[in-house]
Design brief:
Layout lengths: L1 H10 L5 H13 L4 H26 L4 H23 L6 H30 L5 H27 L3 H21 L19
Helix pairs in contact: 1-6, 1-7, 2-3, 2-5, 2-6, 3-5, 4-5, 4-7, 6-7
């Protein structure tokens, strides 16, 4: 559970990417119109609202741990996509960032549909409330520190921002995938994710 909570702090950075990192990079580094940032944010919101249920149902055939690890891989791939889109500044940079934002939104959807479900499956019933509280605390911590971290990294260039996010997210995904479940009677491998759980 500790590895999962630590990984969640990194995973949750994806929730602030459309609000903090993408507008920052588009406006200050690529000198694109602020309309691009607004459009990407709206598109992200629409994607999350319309795809959350179908994607969660699609992922329900796999174990929660596998799905959460997959979310990390998708998010890391999107960060590398942002790096590729923003490193060479050209007239197609803003559209490329918008396209990669779709991948990031899908990673966010997969993460949101699996993280809480995995915590619920792993925590023994007597301490389930405590485990969920700690999970929410790790989420709040990630949301609180991510604007400062991303702003600081962005000041050192696209490689520092997107490379660091990709590396830390891949490391977190690896920790989620390899962490051994404790014998709680709720082995994740025997309980695949269910939609809405």
């Amino acid at each position: 559970m500790r590895a999962l909570l630590a990984a969640n702090v990194v995973y949750v950075f994806c929730l602030n990417v459309p609000e903090i990192a993408v507008p920052l990079v588009l406006v200050t580094q690529l000198h694109a119109s602020p309309l691009w940032a607004a459009a990407i944010f709206v598109a992200n919101t629409v994607l999350v609202v319309t795809l959350q249920v179908p994607v969660t149902v699609l992922m329900s055939r796999f174990s929660r741990r596998t799905v959460l690890a997959l979310a990390g891989v998708v998010l890391a791939a999107s960060y590398l996509g942002f790096l590729a889109a923003t490193s060479p500044e050209h007239r197609w940079s803003a559209p490329a960032v918008a396209a990669v934002s779709v991948v990031c939104a899908i990673g966010e959807i997969i993460y949101a549909g699996s993280a809480t479900a995995l915590v619920t499956a792993l925590a023994p019933a007597p301490v389930l409330g405590r485990a969920l509280s700690r999970f929410q605390l790790s989420t709040g911590l990630g949301l609180a520190v991510s604007p400062a971290v991303m702003t600081s990294l962005a000041s050192h260039g696209p490689a520092a921002l997107w490379g660091s996010l990709a590396a830390s997210t891949l490391l977190s995904a690896s920790a989620v995938a390899t962490e051994k479940d404790q014998a709680t009677g709720l082995s994740d491998s025997r309980h695949p994710a269910r939609a809405g759980s």
